[in-house]
Amino acid sequence: WDLTTGNANVVVAVIDTGVAYTHPDLAANMWTNPSEIAANGVDDDGNGYIDDVYGINAITGSGDPMDDHNHGTHCAGTVAAVGNNGAGVAGVCWTAKIMALKFVASSGTGAYSDAIECIEYAVGKGAHILSNSWGSYDYGQALEDTIDAAAAAGVLFVAAAGNDGYDSDGTLRHYPSSYENPNIIAVAATDRY
Asked: Model's pTM, two decimal places?
């Protein structure tokens, strides 16, 4: 943070359970769709989503990505909660913009088809980085192809390596982190053991 606290021109799409876009530590850093007029009940940009001001909910096909699980909000806070404001937490990048994309339900499950919809939306709306703190042991060719298309558009895809302690380069592969697309950064966590 002595070197940089982020860049307000960088858009990070949090593809997860949605984001509580009214959260006091996130509201100032939420991306807003410049082609959409808030709360007018019209699909102003003609992309199939009404009032997709902060992003989309691929589960319901709506323009409301409000979080009903809290995981996506937690991840968004790690990425870009407003820093040095005396409230809550500080994100890694204090000013980056958060695009909210919901494909994981309150139960914690989601379909690859909905994840693909979110990825395509994010790339189409100009996101620079896609944050994906989710995964499965099921391979999906369509998901891999969509990540390839994001790479062709110059979009970075950050993926969680999973929480089970497996070598995801071994026989038990974790997706999307185990795909070999050149734009994927697989992120693992460690503890004292």
From this structure: 0.97
